[in-house]
Specification:
Blueprint (H helix, E strand, L loop, with lengths): L4 H6 L25 E2 L3 H5 L8 E8 L8 E2 L2 E6 L14 E11 L1 H7 L5 H11 L3 E3 L3 E9 L1 H5 L8 E4 L2 E2 L5 H4 L10 E2 L12 E4 L3 E3 L7 H4 L2 H12 L7 E5 L3 H12 L4 E6 L2 H10 L3 E4 L11 H10 L5 E6 L4 H10 E9 L13 H5 L3 E4 L7 H11 L5 H9 L7 E3 L5 H10 L3 E4 L1
Parallel strand pairs: 1-3, 13-14, 13-16, 14-15, 16-17, 17-18, 19-20
Antiparallel strand pairs: 2-4, 2-6, 5-7, 5-11, 5-20, 7-8, 8-12, 9-10
Helix pairs in contact: 8-9, 8-14, 9-10, 9-15, 11-12
Amino acid sequence: MARTRNDIQKGENPGVAAPAGRTANPRPSPRARSTKMAGVAKDARARTTPTEEEMWALVFDTDKDGWETSRGFRKQRVARPFLNEIGDPLDAGAVIVKPIYTGVCGSDTSIWFRTSFRDLIYDSLDAEGKTTRVLGHELLGEVVQAGSVAAAHHDFKPGDIVSAESHIVCGRCHQCLIGQTNVCADERILGNSTDGVFAEYVKLPASVLWRTDTKKIRREVGAIQEPFGNAVHACTTVDLRGKNVVIFGVGAIGQFSILIARALGAARIIGVEPNPHNAALARMLGADDVVKVKPKKDEWRADPDVVEAIHGLVRAGGVDVGIEMAGYNSSVNNAFQSVRRGGEVVLFGIRGGDFQIEDFSKLILKGLTVKNVIGRRIFETWEITKRLLESKENKIQKKIWEFMLNKGQDTILDIHDFDPGAFEKKISTHPKILIKW
């Protein structure tokens, strides 16, 4: 999942007033005045004459769709990226990649339903003098062209199969210089603050590419290494060996976390989830228990029934580690109250706005350690990801393909068959879907 600190700081939610100096719906068009779904089928049929300078992409177009009055992605032709080292010296260190599969993330779903990332998209487009953002950040693709530095220094060549780190870091800020690239102060996020991978071609810095051996990692699974890496980062922030672990929210990242926690030696894994489909998947993936929680998006307090159920499943006054993946205020308080004295809480889920901590003194008196996780540690997390996915002993690949991706049944969409209604149904039904290019 590609997430940015800007969304945390701005506390972005649907209907939040626009920043001063900007109307709530920049560049409105007559067609954007009524609620509609972007990417209408007629756009796909109304093909312009294909040229070498154009390509198909899934985009958010501010000229055609207002944020507050639309939903979905628009399939349309956009300019194809090329390398031009004379015009832009940075192209020497770039490559052109042709996507094979791209994964749809929870943040992409947020953009589809217009629940987050509005300011990030609009501000970056304003800075670039553009009106259209190519979306998407989860990728498995083939290198078709490499700049001179990308070829000479990074050894990329046509035919290489790669995935990509979605955080394009500056390499110059204090955080980057001391090795904390996952919290770069001047990062760009693929598909949000710079053009992404939902396109026939994408130009990327060679420095964010990760080679993938498709003899060891099947291509469909290789396309979702980036979100899998989020779960790897969360699960490796603490030592899970021999620990009782509870995962709050077992959507896609939570499901990955079940697989990873088991592979890293967790003794007992408990899921907490309101969605029956996700709860069933969690059990298939290896959760020992799943506690049902009632959705309480507007309630900030912990759910006493959930906390009591978790305490009833383990001894020692609670679990050793709580991993919070849902991002709701009540879920965060559930995590704090479900962990034993001296335990650890990992916060990964994110929502905008202010949060309240229930009985704050217990955080201190219980001696809890709280750790926040964003992105992946570049490229340490990717190394661990590679080893976990390439291992045959842990059966992680097999379970992702069979259970999360349902062996490709109804979870893979060919871009040529893109239909907004069918796409929305898929992202609302399955924890993970792929787009085939």
